Amino acid sequence: MKFEVSIEKEKVDRTLKDLEDDVVFQNVKRQAAKIRSEKLGFARGATGLKRYLGWFDIMAITVCAVVGMGIFIKTFSVQTAVPGIGDSVPLAFLIGAVPAICTALCYASLASALPRDGGEYIFISRGLNSFFGFWTTWMKWLTCTIAMGVIAYASTDLIINMFYVVGISQSIINSMRSPVGYVTITLVVLSICYWINIKSYKYYQWAIRIFFFIIIFGSLLMILVHLAYSPDMFIRGATQKYGAETVSLILDAGNKIADEHSFDLFNLNTFLDSLKILLSAASVLFFAYIGFGHAVTASGETKEPRKNIPKGIISAIICITVLYFLVSVTFYGFIPWKYIAGYSTLYPDAQPSDFINVSPYAAEIILTSFIIMIALVSVILPVMASISRIFFAWSFDGLMSKKFSKVNKNGMPVSALTVTYLIAVLAVIESQVTGIFKVLEFSTIAMLFTYMFVNITMFLLPMHKPLYYNMAKFKLGKFNSLVSGIGVMTAFLLVGMLIGTSFDSFIVFCVLVMIGGIIYHYNYKKRVESGIDMETTFKILPPE
């Protein structure tokens, strides 16, 4: 036994001597000594966050954050955003999934390499550049916070619709649909989600799991029900509800759109125009995939994040892509696309309930309304949590006031959650005044830019920051450049297509981008002037 111990000691001594002679090791020691001697920007030596999420929770968060708004709102609104897409919406969903899948793989790899709260902010600020890290996530935080308010606003219509379907008196329904009643219900929904987020991580975890099971099994049940219906049944139901004359006007409007925008990818004469329509629709529907990055912002609250986050994200993106395709196929197999396009043209403020309530079966209306309502409401909870973690990460690094990095006894960043909640409240009021769909287009532009920079970071990481790349347990290996390159190019292409259809939203985006740049440079300069070494701060990962 003593002889074996002696041999092991000799091995250790020899290894230590080899390290002392190694130039790289000596350089690392010098860097570590420099870091210890500098005044860094971190708020404190530990985040105070609790690790409680497993891979299943990451998958559930991703599904909840993605599914509701994308499939149940954009499936209908895309007909007015991109006239002529017709019944090719399922194909457009698949095209939109290409950059989403590539980017999801990049997210999984980066989260495995840089597992800290803040998601894209940590990835880009450590893997690429601190300015781009703040700049891109500033737009994500702002637009997703606004979108969260819009989602709550859209879900209110379905909540009211459920009361209407079950037979609540018309006077109460009218009160709920009034501007004051509508906004009040929306704010109640937002406030409940805010309370769950600040109260306890256990409440948040179980709420997410319940929402996940309702979305998955409810959507599958809805698909099976809609398979039993035909377009003729829908038209008969619409005629009973709105009258033959109104339905005729709606179908005439839909036919006019079909005549003006011929869509046929197999016809050489119309191929280029059809391809443009398809890519434009894919850029609009890409909003349906923007939530899959939300789970990684909670990397600092995940158990074994280098393993569990990639597993959860990949499981979620497969589940979401299949679900989107199946749901959109069944919707357009039951509701004629010309009716959707015509109705949306004649009534620009059309809501999902306008199509759902056409069914002659009350039970089916209640089922569909409940599933869509839960799907929309379930988006708010993880988005509020994840966006607040971005603000928390800025604060922890010193780019915002340090009071936003404070956590309560349950490890929840209350101040960061509160500022996110208040911006969402303002978005609810804005939605009541100007409508929602322009906001969604603006949010999509911002998210595409974020995805673009995440893919660029992943593309450059093996060369620019090989130490971080080698720390990842999930690597793309020889496909790293291909996958991240596809993500960059497709995101860039979709941005261009979306700007073409929503140039006014792009102008607003540019203005807010400049504001974000000013905020970064002001806070960075302020910290440097106070003696903090911000350059060294961004060379290392924040404490856990």
Q: What can you see in these coordinates?
A:
This protein has helices at 2-21, 23-37, 55-81, 89-113, 120-127, 130-165, 170-177, 179-199, 201-227, 231-242, 244-260, 271-285, 305-334, 337-346, 352-356, 362-397, 414-434, 437-464, 466-471, 480-501, 503-529, 534-537. The chain is mainly alpha-helical and 544 residues long. The chain has a single domain (53-455, 487-537), classed as Up-down Bundle (Amino acid/polyamine transporter I). The two termini are 40 Å apart.
Indicate the proportion of strand residues.
Answer: under 5%
Major pleated sheet:
none
State Rg: 25 Å
Poorly predicted runs are: 1-9
Kindly state the number of beta strands: 0
Q: Domain count, please report it.
A: 1
Strand and helix map with partners:
Blueprint: H1 2-21, H2 23-37, H3 55-81, H4 89-113, H5 120-127, H6 130-165, H7 170-177, H8 179-199, H9 201-227, H10 231-242, H11 244-260, H12 271-285, H13 305-334, H14 337-346, H15 352-356, H16 362-397, H17 414-434, H18 437-464, H19 466-471, H20 480-501, H21 503-529, H22 534-537
Helix pairs in contact: 3-9, 3-13, 3-14, 3-16, 4-12, 4-13, 4-18, 4-20, 5-6, 5-18, 6-7, 6-8, 6-16, 6-17, 6-18, 6-21, 8-9, 8-16, 8-17, 9-13, 9-16, 10-11, 11-14, 12-20, 16-17, 18-20, 18-21, 20-21
Notable traits:
Amino acid/polyamine transporter I, 544 residues, mainly alpha, 22 helices, 0% strand, disordered N terminus
